[in-house]
Amino acid sequence: MYDWLIVGAGFAGSVLAERLATERNERVLLIDRRNHIGGNAYDRYDDDGLLIHQYGPHIFHTNSKQIFDHLSRFTEWRFYEHRVLAEVDDMLVPIPINLDTVNKLYGLNLTSEQLQDWFAERAEKNGEIKTSEDVVVSAVGRELYEKFFRGYTRKQWGLDPSELDKSVTSRVPTRTNRDDRYFTDEFQFMPKHGYTRMFEKMVSHPNIHVMTQTDYDDVKHVVPHRRVIYTGPIDEYFNFQFGKLPYRSLRFEHVTLDKAWHQPVGVVNYPQTHDYTRVTEYKHLTGQDHAKTALTYEYPSAEGDPYYPIPKAENQELFKKYERLALSTPDVWFVGRLATYRYYNMDQIVGQALATFRRINESLPVGADT
Ligand code: FAD
Q1: Is the ipTM of this complex over 0.85?
Q2: Mean pLDDT of all residues in the chain?
Q3: Which residue of 87, 147, 186, 234 shows the fewest CB atoms closer than 10 Å?
Q4: Ligand 1 centre and the CA of 103: distance in Å?
Q5: Domain segments of the chain: what residues?
Q6: Per-residue confidence (pLDDT) for residue 368, from 0 to 100
């Protein structure tokens, strides 16, 4: 008899498995339908020995010391500040848009103060900010919006920014200084030996039994267990009874080149050209020293694994119906990005898992049912 059946061995499932096994001395069966642990953060060595991220680049960043310290139990870190360039009008310029972006693109020599005025002259401030288009046009004007955001968002989401919730482009700031870091969080690191190694260390505990290539449906009526932590898609758990929650998917094309370097930074975005949205070169992220280099091209698609919940009001309403069912389902805890139908960064999922663990401790005293 397992105390817990945990469905999904990504951050949500693995963090909780470790906590329950270590702090409550409970027996955990951790399953994943994929053939590996780590969820979307899974990384692996390709045939040439280059470390790549199977599901696209994952850069760890957080402002939470508690979350950073928690993960530090399972990995050493490599300092890495992520930088992204966008290919716009045949030039490579920093994104988020900053002082250098505008000066390079328009052949100007503005100061930070002048750039503020430059943005203000172009910003269209007419009314309430509702959509992704409104967010950008009201900050930097229509021309930069079209160069950097319109095409990229249409490729990424298959929708025009005017049809998407403001949350999508609100994630990308605009700067008037020369800071070209993609993130400004206090802690920006990559796991020194990769994510998969970190996960292996996290779940290697005598109380945790890991089974990959195992679907919840395969074991739910077969393996005795007291409670469930479910980190898969919430609509699937309830047999899609209200309909499918829409997701945007991606196809990843992994390529190895017989040369040391391909591009100047970890990620280059392509808002104007090509069917792919961005290209990642992993050696920038991992610091690996290798004669070859590994890249991933990302092609957005309507079909495939669920990656990005589509942020539209009607989808949230559908999710709320499932959430109400989840709240009235006893002994099942719904955790993680697929069970809560929201885009979360890795650190947020670790935070969500640790908060769930605290709630479990509050509602279930250790040993109460043994
Ligand atoms: P997942 O990692 O998806 O794990 C859920 C697991 O459950 C999966 O492995 C799945 O196979 C399994 N599962 C589902 N249903 C079942 C079932 N019925 N039976 C058995 N197993 C099941 N975050 C960052 O902080 N920085 C980044 O740079 C970053 N980049 C990203 C890039 C991309 C392309 C994407 C898509 C996401 C990125 N993220 C990034 C977000 C990050 O991937 C998530 O925050 C994190 O993976 C969520 O962890 P999770 O455990 O909730 O879900």
Answers
A1: yes
A2: 96
A3: 186
A4: 38
A5: 2-47+193-245+310-363, 96-170
A6: 66
Note the pLDDT of residue 369. Answer: 62
323-352 per-position pLDDT tens digit? 999 999 999 999 999 999 999 999 999 999
> Which of 108-122, 180-194, 217-231, 356-370 bottoms out in mean pLDDT, i.e. has the lowest?
356-370
If you measure from the C-alpha of residue 337 to the centroid of ligand 1, how many angstroms do you get, rounded to a whole number? 7
Q: Closest ligand 1 atom to the C-alpha of 214?
A: 20
* Residue closest by Cα to atom 46 of ligand 1: 346
Residue identifier of the C-alpha nearest atom 43 of ligand 1: 40
Fold of 2-47+193-245+310-363: Rossmann fold (3.40.50)
Among 43, 60, 51, 37, residue whose Cα is nearest residue 349? 60
Ligand 1 is surrounded, with C-beta below 6 A, by 7-13, 31-34, 39-41, 55-59, 215-216, 231-232, 250, 307, 336-338, 344-347, 349
